[in-house]
Structure formats: structure tokens, C-alpha cells
Amino acid sequence: MEIIRTVEWMKQIARDARAKEQILGLVPTMGALHEGHLSLVRAAKLDCTQIAASIFVNPKQFGPSEDLQKYPRKFEEDAAALEKSGVHYLFAPDASEIYPTGFRTSVTVEGWSDRLEGRSRPGHFKGVTTVVLKLFEIAQPQRAYFGRKDAQQLAIIRRMAADLNLDTQVIPCPIVREPDGLAMSSRNAYLNSDERRSATVLYRALNAAKKAIEQGETQTACLIETMRKIFSEEPSAALDYAEIVDAETLNTIPHLRKTTLALVAALVGKTRLIDNAQIEETSEGFSVQL
Ligand code: AMP
Predict the structure, then answer these.
(1) pLDDT tens column, 155-189
(2) Distant-in-sequence contacts of 110-116, Cβ < 8 A, 24+ apart
(3) CB distance 29 to ligand 1 below 6 Å
(4) What atom of ligand 1 comes closest to residue 174's alpha carbon?
């Protein structure tokens, strides 16, 4: 595996891969890798001939009071895990390489970037879309792999790719969970043992909504109430939002639609966690993917 620190070098590799008609898959990450990230690499290996992963803790997606400085960084371990998983190129630039002096340009998906996560984290998605567009331009991947764990991020990136006619196909991948249901996240490392136990409340709330849907409930107000109730019984977690939206538009809806997202965000101690479930209408009713 080759470690690449500069934009120019990564661009040259991308040009060579295109010239050789290789299919380059990109897995963008912020490092502190876990099985969720490695599942994206595995998905990329199924349909690409060359795999690039990036590790870049993007300062522009962190708010002034967020955890940029203390975000976990484990470069050596991450590089070893990526190499073992079959990654060919690890793009790991410094912030000054991505945002040189004088940098002023950004891209925003209007309307969607200030809802849900965006309401609590102003500017977050502008930082995400800007860096993802740059990574797509630098690495020129035919395919890029993103986790459904960050469902709003995925929706926003797909919208950006469609709106800007990007040459990269955005591939969604399932959420990887711990045995007790907690969605894997680099931020889980912040949790102490009591918080770690409480943190399953996000999964438990979504699971309660899933059970209610399987019993025929389709009114989103009732489903939201079901999720809120689970949070109210877990005082060590402070619910930020429990919402149900149309997966196509991210608008709130009174009843489940063809494709719907149930999303939750909460603070457990000082750690902000998110999770979601994907709800789809099938010929046999609604099916819920956690
Ligand atoms: P991050 O390093 O947190 O920016 O995440 C990099 C990529 O990994 C994003 O596409 C995430 O959605 C994805 N990811 C993070 N956690 C998980 C998980 N538990 N399951 C699946 N994908 C994940």
C-alpha cells in the first residue's frame, strides 16, 4: 500500500488508473478505523480493481466547540488495517495541503444542510460536501463508498453528486453494529463504561420503532413518541432529536412513505451519537433495516 501525502501525487495516480482503464474505488474516512470503515473497503473490493482510502480529519466540518483537537488519531494502526484489507493507496494529506492559504470556496446542498444534524451542527455539512467534492476531484474515483450510519450525510452527498453531474457513483453501505446494537463509531472511544451501557439507547429506541412498525403502526407521531419514551427511561442520555423523514426529500411526514428514515441523535455524557433506521414499503408491508 502506497501512502500519499500530496494532492498532486494522488491526482497523478488517479490519471494513471484512468489511463489503464482501472476501476478506482474511494473510501473516505477520518481515521480511528473500526469494522464499519473496513466494511466499506470490503464493499469496494467487490467491484473495483484499485482501492484508495483517505484519512483526513477535516477541520471544516467541526464547529468551534466540537472535538477537532481530541478526535482520535491512530495513523499507524489505521494504515496497517487498511493494508491488510487490501487497500492500494492511502491518501492522508495535511490540512494545509487540502486548504492552502487563501482558500475561500465551498459547496452547500441548500436546505438539507441545516436540518437534523445541521441544526445542531451549523456549517458541518458545508464542510463535509466541500471536502468530499475535493476528494472526488483529486482521486477521480469511479465509485465512492459511504456508510448508511451517517444517513443524512449520505443523502446530501448523493444529492451533490447528482446536482453537479459528478463522475463518481456514490455507493451506500449497511450500518455495522456492536453485538449489543450500538452503531460502530470512532467517537464510541470517548464513552466510559457507564456511558457505553447507556449508549445502546439509540439502537433500543430505533428497535422499538421497528417493532411498532412490524405491528402495523404507520403514523410517524406515534413512532416518534415510542422512540422518545425509550430515551425518557435513560436519563444519562440527552435526546437531541428523534425524527422521521421521507428518505428522498428529508421532509418530515405524517405517515411512513415508500422510503423513510427514522433518525436519532443524543448526547451520552459529552459524546454526541447518531443512528438511524431505513424503512421501506414492500409488497408485504413496511420493512425496517437497522
Ligand atoms: P468517519 O470516519 O466517521 O468520517 O466515517 C467514514 C465513513 O465510514 C462514512 O461513510 C461513514 O458513514 C462510514 N461509517 C462510520 N461508521 C460506520 C458504521 N458503523 N457502519 C457503516 N459505515 C460506517
Answers:
(1) 999 999 999 999 999 999 999 999 999 999 999 99
(2) 112/152, 112/155, 112/156, 112/159, 112/250, 113/156, 115/152, 115/250, 116/152, 116/241, 116/243, 116/245, 116/250, 116/263, 116/265
(3) yes
(4) 21
Closest by CA to 187, choosing from 175, 176, 196, 198, is 196
Please report, as a single letter, which amino acid is at residue 57: V
Q: Does residue 124 carry a catalytic annotation?
A: no
Q: DSSP readout, 38-49?
A: HHHHHHHHHH-S
Give yes or no for residue 38 CB within 6 A of ligand 1.
Answer: no
Residue pLDDT, tens place only, 107-122:
999 999 999 999 999 9
Tell whether ligand 1 has an atom less than 6 A from the beta carbon of residue 85. no
**Using one digit for the tens of pLDDT, what is the confidence trace for 260-274?**
999 999 999 999 999
Contact 7, 95 (CB under 8 A): no
Q: How far apart are CA 92 and CA 175, in angstroms?
A: 24
Ligand 1 centroid – CA 186 distance (Å): 8
Q: Which protein residue has the closest C-alpha to ligand 1 atom 6? A: 29
